Amino acid sequence: MGLLKAGTGAVGGVLADQWREFFYCDSLDANVLAAKGQKRISAHGRSSNTKGEDNIISDGSIVAVNEGQCMIIVEQGAVVEVCAEPGEFVFESSSEPSVFAGNLGDSIRRSFETLGRRFTFGGDTGCDQRIYFFNTKEIVGNKYGTASPVPFRVVDRNIGLDVDIAVRCNGEYSYRLVDPLLFYKNVCGNIQDVYTRDRIDSQLKSELLTALQPAFAKISEMGIRYSAVPGHTMELSRALNEVLSDSWAETRGIQVAAFGVNTISASPEDEAMIKELQKAAVMRDPTMAAANLAAAQSDAMRAAASNEGGAMAGFMGLGLAGMAGGMGAGNLFQMGAQQQATPPAPDAAPASPNTWACGCGAVNVGKFCMECGAPKPSPAGSWTCSCGSVNTGRFCPECGSPRPETAEWTCSCGAVNTGKFCMECGRPHS
Questions:
Q1: Nearest residue to 228 via CA among 273, 180, 182, 261
Q2: What confidence category does residue 10 fall into, taking pLDDT thresholds of 50, 70 and 90?
Q3: Which of 198, 175, 140 is nearest to 252 (CA)?
Q4: pLDDT for residue 201
Q5: Burial of 37 by CB count in 10 Å (0-12 exposed, 13-18 middle, 19+ buried)?
Q6: Which pLDDT does position 308 carry in this prediction?
Q7: Tally of structural domains, the chain
Q8: pLDDT over 60 (residue 340)
Q9: Is the pTM of this model over 0.70?
C-alpha cells in the first residue's frame, strides 16, 4: 500500500511540476532588506498550475527582477544563480525538468529519472529550490546619537592650538546592500518570508557610534574643525567606510551611503577653553591688544565716574598702573604701526662663488655683464698661457711654462695692455 502511495505521489508530483512558473517580488519598501520570491497564480481561477510544490522551480521558469533589486536562486542550500539586472531572467539549469522547455526527448527522459528519484523518497520531491530578492536601494532614515561624548582633536595651526575635547552629535545616515551574496550567507540566511531592517539596525547603530571616534580622528587630521563637520559629510562618510570596511563591507556586504550631521557641540567647559585660547592668541597682535586695553580702560573710567566715593581712587589707580611700568595702549598702537610700516626683510640669497661685480654695479655670473656687456675682468696681474690657462704666478700650473716677458694684462677698466701702465685709464700694472 505504501509503495502504491509513493508511486502515485511521485507520478502526480512530476506531472504537476511540469508547468513553467513565473516568480516575482512585490515592491520592497525601506523596511524590507530581503524577501522570498512568490509564484504567481491567476486570481481568476484560470491557472492550471496550482498543484505544484512550493519549493520547486521547473526548468525554463521565468523570474522578474525589478529596479533596485537583486535576485538569487538557492538550490539544496547553495546559491546557483545571481541576477542584479532588471528584466526577465530565465532559469534554464534547473534540476527539475519540464517538457515545455528545452529538447522534448531529453526533457521526457529527465522526467522519468526525476520520477524514479522521487519514488525513492516516498513520493516526495527530495529537492529544495528557493528564490530570494534583496533590496539594493539606499536605506534611509537611520537615526543616531552619541549617548556619551566622543573624543575630537581640535587643531588650529594659525594660533598653534592642538587640544583634545569631547563632542556630542546626532543625525541620520543611510546604507546600501552592495553585496547581496555576503548578506545572505552571513546575515539573513534561509528566511521563510521577509527580513526587515529592525533585526539588524540596532547592531549597525552600535558599530557606527563606535567607529565615530577613529572617523573623527581622520577628519581632525585634515584640519577640519568640529564646528565645520556638518559641511564635510562626504569626507566623514569616506572615513566611516574605511573604519567599517571589515565589519560591514567585507562581512555583511553593507556600505554607508550617506552620513548627515544635524548638530555637533562640545561641552561648555571645552567651548570656554577654546575661546580663551583664541582670545589670548589674538593678543599677540599689538594693535588688537591696544584696542582691548583701551576698551578695558574706558570701562574702568566709566565705572569709577559713576561711583562718587571711589571716583578719585579709580583715577589714581589708573595713574598708578601707568607709572608701574605697564604697557599702555598708546605704546601698543605705536608698536603695531611700526610692525605694519616695516616690511619683513627678504631672505638674503647666498652669494655664489662664481659671481663678479661689474663697474656698472650689476652682479653677474657669466663672462659678460648682463647690463652693459662688459667682459669679466681678469684678476690683477694675470697672464694667459699658450695652453689657454689664466695665471697670476710666474709659471703656468697647467703646463709649467714660464710667464713671458711681454705678457698681456687686463686692466679693471677692461683694456688689454702689455706695458706697465694702462693705455686707457693710466692705472699701473700691479
A1: 261
A2: low
A3: 175
A4: 92
A5: buried
A6: 60
A7: 3
A8: no
A9: no
